[in-house]
Amino acid sequence: xxxxxxxxxxxxxxxxxxxxxxxxxxxxxxxxxxxxxxxxxxxxxxxxxxxxxxxxxxxxxxxxxxxxxxxxxxxxxxxxxxxxxxxxxxxxxxxxxxxxxxxxxxxxxxxxxxxxxxxxxxxxxxxxxxxxxxxxxxxxxxxxxxxxxxxxxxxxxxxxxxxxxxxxxxxxxxxxxxxxxxxxxxxxxxxxxxxxxxxxxxxxxxxxxxxxxxxxxxxxxxxxxxxxxxxxxxxxxxxxxxxxxxxxxxxxxxxxxxxxxxxxxxxxxxxxxxxxxxxxxxxxxxxxxxxxxxxxxxxxxxxxxxxxxxxx
Length: 312
Known about the structure:
The protein is an alpha+beta fold. The chain is 42% helix and 14% strand. It has 8 helices and 10 strands. The strands form 3 sheets. Strands 5, 6, 7, 8, 9 and 10 form a 6-stranded antiparallel sheet that branches. It has a two-stranded antiparallel sheet with strand order 1-2.
């Protein structure tokens, strides 16, 4: 028997929190609306031409209508209802496939980085991103919401005792229950650039006076280079996006919520930091470009900030 204080706590988390409410016979309001529209169309067809057409012909007309309504109401694909999936497919088909960011106006021609095509390239529409501005304090303007980002590390509870695990889960649950607005937790895996780190260690080894320490540093740099060649090392990043709405003091409120989230998660043992404007821009840059190095420790300049350098 294991001691009672080492029993791993289990918490049941429902996976259907976003499931719509069932109205009648296990059907949602959306499904009932689709079937009701199909029923009205079928009833109108029978009333209009039911006495003019033979019964087999009438059945042949109503069967595809009923089948389409059932598929739209009950079918699902890729986690979406069939009607939402078809609507997304139509929007994707009709939307332009080439988009370019532009601060003002619509670009008249394809940008230089666009791939060449045999046919004349049409005008490229403007890419509209959800974020329209990032302030120096890190508040991201998405229109109806103001968003602030909190970067934090993970916490390993596998080696904790049962009481410690229960305390961590309880603290995390109290933070979730204290939320008064939408919050998104994003966990992503990104590649680690070990080659540049190995190069810095090898260059630093030349400055070490002790031959033994210099040799150990060179061996460590060679180990990192070999690890980068043979393996594909990854690291996990955790970002918490808190939101706030309203017309007055929205930026102050979202920063207050970000500080509250950072303090609540740091109490669990995680290292947290509320990202300012430069680091939020760096994080969004890495998130939208998979080929960008994942190092966000150095800040990017904001889109409306002039970049200056030392003169010759």
